[in-house]
Structures
1.
Amino acid sequence: MEGGSPPPDLESVGSRRSSLPLSGRTRKRKEFLQRFVDSEFLTANLEDWFASLSLTEKSTRRKRVFDEPFELVELQKFDYALEGISFQQLMRMPSPLYPSSSDSVEATAFLAVEDFLHASAKGLWEAFWSQNEPMPFSAASLYNENSKFYQAEKAIAKGKLGGLCATALMMNNPRHPHGKWDHILEVALLRPGLSSYPVDSDRELPPLILGESLFFALRVLIARSLSRLSFPQGSNCVYVLLLDSQYGGVVKVEGDMNRMEFDINDIYGSASDWIKNHAQVSVSSVDRIWNKLGNANWGDIGALQVLFATFQAIVQFAGTPKLSIEDLAADHSIRLRARRMERQLDMDDSQPNGDGLFRLQNRAVSPEIVEVQDDSIRVEVEESLKLEVGSVLWLEESNWQKGYQINAILNDGDLLYYDASPVDDPGKSFFLYVGSPPSQLEPAWVNMNLWYQVQRQTKVLSSMRQKGVSSKYLSALVSSGRIIHPGQCQRPSSGGNCNHPWCGTPILVTSPVGETVADMISSGRFGVDEAIRCCHDCLSAISAAASVGIRHGDIRPENVIFVNTGVRQPYFVLIGWGHAVLEERDRPAMNLHFSSTYALQEGKLCSASDAESLVYLLYFSSGGTSPNLDSVEGALEWRENAWSRRQIQQKLGDVSTVLKAFADYVDSLCGTPYPIDYEIWLRRLKRSMHVEDHGKEIDPSVHDGRTDRQTFTADLKSPGRGKLRP
Ligand SMILES: [Zn+2]
């Protein structure tokens, strides 16, 4: 890898060979290595140096004492190259959140580090070097009593756990089953407490940990300088990985061993002199590698740094890989293009006329040149895309055209959407979502969020309709299509857009409309009755969607509305389906207050996840104290504490016993694969609703036989139910 590997040091060995007879020189180094066994002595010898470095750092206002071993651009390219590679982790890192007995945690951690090194090296080997040849390396742990390497599993079985002090990735060599130091590609040190030196904390790693890293690096370098192995890409650079059960970083030590004195009478003095004067030490930031479930986040910067170090270490032993990082990274743009086409396809899929694919193909092969419009018109319309109350927007769906007049501008927390009425039927109201015009350059996050809100939601709602899900508690697709812009549309007959800035802007219209729970809470109109009904209606929506394998994934007060105009019996509807999970690869939205524990930990939903989010919604809506959450860790910790103290159940118990019982039930299911028994809970909630309603409301359907259909002519909302609750 360019820039990463130093020139071979074999030449320099040759050039200085004359200074001492080879045998004598080798003997001296061997003896030195045998006696160089105490990392604490080395650290003590380096204390002044560490202190002077941090003084220099302060006086020169450098950000870090040591340089970073890798450039961010290198890591980024490496990240692209790794996109198609899967790393197979078999052992989970034990979570510090759920400690059992400390011995078993430590043992599991050692096994997990070995597994991590193995999975990293194997994934890299197969992707860059060879699919067919077996990987010539393996991971083993060092037992400090005899400086031998063992598989951690065997060492632990023999009661050697307490003496394990490092893990190494090393060349397989059947003649040396307990490992040789010159066979080591890289060393990993499992040192709890790294999490307190994360990347943004400015805190440098303590001398003890750095000293130990330098000690192990130096031992490997000395052993290599005595080795008979050939190092095609040079051997004077060693990577030491620092890991704890969540975080990790890389220490890189590089230098010419021939510049070391090897003074047998002052072993630690000559070692520290070499480090001070002849070595280049670089230290990476400490970043997260494992999530709370103990799975490595392979794409995160913490794991990337460690993988990149491992990659460089393999290069030293195995030479230039068959496929370069550039080769593999080149596929990134192909994947990116495929992803974009997929998105485009998603968008076109949602067109009910079903010729999405056809049009996509046409679009891709027809780079037709369209007439350039007058620039002055262009600027004017671009500015006027902001919709105001009263403005009318025309929508083209298949061959229909329909106008909608904006009644109100609404906010889902991030983005605007609209309450609008069809021009030809002003008695009706719908929600209208407007996507970003393809021509407009929005900040990426706005673009992405708009895509979720409009195109993705259109796809989800159409999918529900195709699968025959119908429930009045779900929002329904009324129509979807593209905007009809003012002036003549010059788009080519084969599809695509003309150069009017609005051309191709996607629009989605859904029903029903209502006030969001967020608004009800802020105006104090979400009381006991509402909480129980909300729980029933949302659970019913969750159940209907789950029956066809769809999960909502973004339940929060902005995504639940209360429908109370034109209906006999007000009810709640779950809206905002853009982040719904249709298949395994879909990711739910991340929300520190409302996401389920599993979603925060895994980025996925389990079967109880939506119900768990619903419980948080009810808890916060019923006056549960809202914690100040600013990180996923903090959010998980809050959940852990709140559930274990039964804080959520208690709060909901103040509202109603059935909600308390429901929270208990959800708590028992969280994170398990067991399905929710929707029927039982819908029945119980319904019973509580009837108790609440009893005597307060006369069901008009009893008298006039009206069904629960939405009507816009009569508002039959019962006046008996107090909505204004402080
Ligand atoms: Zn156009």
Note: Residues 485, 489-491, 497-498, 500, 503 surround zinc ion (CB under 6 Å).
2.
Amino acid sequence: MTEEKNNNKKTGARWSDDQPMVMPGIRRFQFFTNVDDRALTKNLNRLAMFSISAILALDVGKAVVNKIPQSIYCYECRACYGTQDKCPVGISYQAELVVAGRVTDYDRFLRNGGLKCIRCGSCQSFCVQYLNLPRMFGTMQILTMKALRKGKIPKRMVQNAFDQGLINKDFIDEVTKYLS
Ligand code: SF4
Ligand code: SF4
């Protein structure tokens, strides 16, 4: 047994006697704290951390480049849904518009009535962060219309929004032209 233990030590393998007792008769294999065994997971951890940082930087960078930096501060708490009938055009999910702006998701923006918003500001007082929601929605409207002119938004998405009456008078002429 000692010979086997010595062989394992040479190859870096763990030996049960080396592990601390956690309960009588039970030894704990310290996979995550055993440096010899950790080389691969250490690198995987680094890769995971790098990926998470890159995704966060992309998310933040996109919002800043698109001039909707305040969207980064949205908690996604949905308190703004309390606007309800105080929204004159009946938009129910303001947070969806904020998140759509943060990640430049045109489909999400259209589906939730982004082009129907008249930027009145009624929803702003319901935001726990008091974010400038009308300004964010206005910026996203400009970006959406730019993308539409460049043909970057599939017609079926615009058609769905049109069929559901989710386009306000400011954009209806251009949207109708785009769909014809
Ligand atoms: S700013 Fe837009 S979403 Fe907010 S209450 Fe006014 S119309 Fe509704
Ligand atoms: S209340 Fe403000 S912080 Fe919360 S989800 Fe709505 S916009 Fe975001």
Note: The first strand starts at residue 21 and ends at 23.
